[in-house]
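lol forgot to send this yesterday, sorry. struct tokens for the thing we talked abt
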């Protein structure tokens, strides 16, 4: 229901100014500075993507853009020009993913219990301050039809239901995991009995890998790069070694991990076998706080990381069996 309620609140904030927007699955973007140049996109129903036989339009895209950047309503529904392209790309990725999830829910023949749907409809209607405001929403977003509104609420509930099953319920982190370092790796390994010239080539290859790794912005980007260029066995898991007890880490890797903050990428770490690069996803700063004082925050951080991993894996699985076109 969280996503559904967010839909309503965002819509209420912008219907009067004739702009549409929808739910949020991304962390919201930050507010803009004064005098930032803004762009106000228009939406006329132009197709932007096709997921199997379903066409998504620029109206769907704009809704998600407002969800990612809710501060747009503070700027006459405009987006910062410097950020607009990234917001648009993220929104397109999200609406395609949610349509894939919805279609998978239908394929599995998931259903929303009538009582749950009625409760969701009642909760949704409570967000409107008057019948006139609700009718304005129906006219602007649902072609004046409560049947269309109920169908959209059902769609949101089915998406939530499948994501709860495939992501949320599987993203639980134990306290044992919370005590560990959560890292991803990209490794460059030497050939057996490598010559001096081959060792130099290996170093150059590792330096190039490091430059690419430093440009990644998050877990997924680092993971995609690991799948492409890493030479260790974890490349098939986006380089994700999950939670590793500090006692099991090589001294060189442990030293690098201790110097990083979550989300940072290390420099080249020379090992007996080649080089590795790590991205630290979570750790407990040594000597600063007792584990009991930080375990909830660390577990939450690891849970978020695992959720991202599961969502990415679900997206890849669904895309493998679907036809997705960006129009």
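and heres what i got for the seq, position by position
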């Amino acid at each position: 229901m969280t996503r559904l309620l967010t839909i309503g609140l965002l819509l209420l904030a912008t219907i009067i100014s004739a702009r549409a927007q929808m739910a949020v699955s991304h962390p919201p973007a930050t507010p803009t500075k004064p005098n930032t140049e803004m762009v106000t996109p228009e939406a006329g129903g132009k197709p932007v993507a096709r997921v199997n036989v379903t066409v998504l339009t620029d109206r769907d895209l704009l809704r998600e853009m407002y969800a990612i950047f809710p501060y747009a309503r503070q700027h006459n529904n405009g987006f910062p020009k410097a950020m607009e392209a990234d917001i648009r790309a993220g929104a397109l990725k999200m609406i395609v993913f949610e349509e894939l999830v919805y279609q998978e829910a239908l394929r599995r023949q998931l259903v929303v219990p009538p009582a749950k749907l009625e409760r969701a409809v009642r909760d949704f209607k409570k967000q409107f301050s008057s019948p006139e405001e609700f009718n304005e929403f129906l006219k602007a977003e649902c072609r004046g039809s409560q049947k269309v509104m109920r169908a959209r609420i059902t769609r949101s509930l089915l998406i939530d239901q499948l994501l709860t099953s495939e992501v949320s319920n599987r993203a639980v982190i134990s306290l044992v995991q919370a005590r560990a370092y959560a890292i991803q790796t990209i490794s460059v390994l030497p050939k057996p009995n490598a010559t001096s010239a081959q060792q130099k080539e290996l170093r150059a290859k590792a330096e190039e890998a490091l430059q690419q790794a430093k440009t990644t912005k998050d877990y997924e980007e680092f993971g995609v790069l690991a799948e492409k260029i890493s030479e260790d066995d974890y490349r098939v898991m986006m380089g994700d070694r999950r939670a590793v007890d500090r006692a099991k880490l090589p001294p060189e890797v442990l030293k690098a991990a201790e110097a990083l903050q979550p989300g940072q990428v290390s420099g080249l770490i020379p090992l007996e076998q080649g080089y590795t690069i790590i991205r630290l996803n979570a750790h407990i700063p040594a000597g600063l706080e007792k584990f009991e004082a930080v375990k909830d925050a660390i577990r939450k951080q690891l849970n978020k990381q695992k959720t991202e991993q599961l969502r990415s894996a679900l997206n890849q699985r669904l895309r493998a069996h679907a036809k997705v076109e960006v129009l």
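Residues 1-28, 285-289 have pLDDT under 50 and may be disordered. anyway ping me if u want another try
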